[in-house]
Amino acid sequence: MAQKKKCVSSHRHGHGNLASRKTPNKKKSIVNTKKTNIIGDEEATQKFKVIRIYLQEEIMMEILRRLPMRSLLRFKCVWKSLIDDPYFRRTHYIHNKDDQNSQKILTMERLFMKDEAFNFYTCSLSTLEDKQKLDWPSSCKPNIARIFCSCDGLVLILVSSGGYNEELVLWNPSTRESILLPHPEFPVRTCVCGLEYDATSEDYKILAINLNAADSFYTSIELLSLKSGSWRRIGYPTSIKPMPVCGFRDCGMDYLAFLHGAFHWLGMSRSGYYTTVSFNISNEMYGEVPLLEQMFGVSPRYYTIDHGVSVLRGMLCFYSTHNHWTEGRIGTFKLWIMKDYGVRESWTKLIEIRDTNLFHSARPKYMFADCQVLLQYKGKRCFNSKFTTSRGPFEFCPKCNITKHGIVYAESFVSPNSLT
């Protein structure tokens, strides 16, 4: 067969006449062989093309999956069909969510003597120079606004123009897409909310709970399933009371901490000990995560002004801020982490900061790879706040603006319009 191919090749170059004259009967055989090879080559070529196209798509998807969102959005018109694919959007987020370069910090800042009451700004957590102003995601002109939490690149925010005129908005700051969510039975501005994805039902769920109620009987807790588009009232466990209200209006948790399929917040048992309440969003069962007595054991000379739970790098955390009455109002911030979830003895104090500027509170927002923690400080002017780390300053906000809220989120292509 190899010799015949050589003959055919020679014939193509004008050296086949001699062979054809000597063996005229072989010409047909050679021609037939040539045709057979062409058919076989075409089939092999088609198979190769299919494999090559498949490999190219897989390789291209793997390459694009590793690119930052800014690069992909710049060429979205070229890769639109791939970027719009739900599988690609999900895998792109999973691949980049733990990369510090894809981590963004979103702040809501208030401007005085301006037509715009609030502005949103975002910048990369690794390079603070690329700060960008974002368009307001709602048509409402608010005098109250609040950032609750983030999940899969989606941000849950509240805007209100006063009274009962509230809007609950689900927003993707990276793609600038947003939707208006249905309003729960109770005012959202009195609640703490959490947003998370339930893998069991393949649905995003929002839990809103009023932690400032005087008793569990009056505690409102509602659950929204984005697929159903409606809120449901959920009973609060009678064995646990909400945490006592602190002396400041906005004291308490910014959001409900989510870990191991459940939202977490602070509560108090009927017997008087503090605990962490958990609520599983799949089976809707309550639980408790124990705290250490010394986490709340404070001298009478101190005044507790803030406390809550959060999640940092997959670990449940407890934080608290106290003021010392006899030492020039020095604020003390403590951060505890639970190394083994549910194991009471695994609580470990990670950070303790004493600062005269820490008059109101400090709340953890993010933990870097080197265990440095990003904190949002609220000082003597409690309506303003600044960002710092457990080791030093972290400046990126314009000093002329008043920072109200801030969160860290990972960029994603997840569209809020596709979830309802």
From TrEMBL:
Residues 57-90 form the F-box domain. It comes from the Eukaryota. It holds the Pfam family FBA_1. Residues 1-15 have a biased composition (Basic residues). InterPro entries: F-box-assoc_dom_typ1, F-box-assoc_interact_dom, F-box-like_dom_sf, F-box_dom, Gal_Oxase/kelch_b-propeller, SCF_F-box_component. Residues 128-360 form the F-box associated beta-propeller type domain. Signal peptide: none annotated. Residues 1-30 are annotated as: Disordered. PANTHER family: BNACNNG10540D PROTEIN, F-BOX PROTEIN CPR30-LIKE. This is Uncharacterized protein. It comes from Solanum tuberosum (Potato). The gene is LOC102590223.
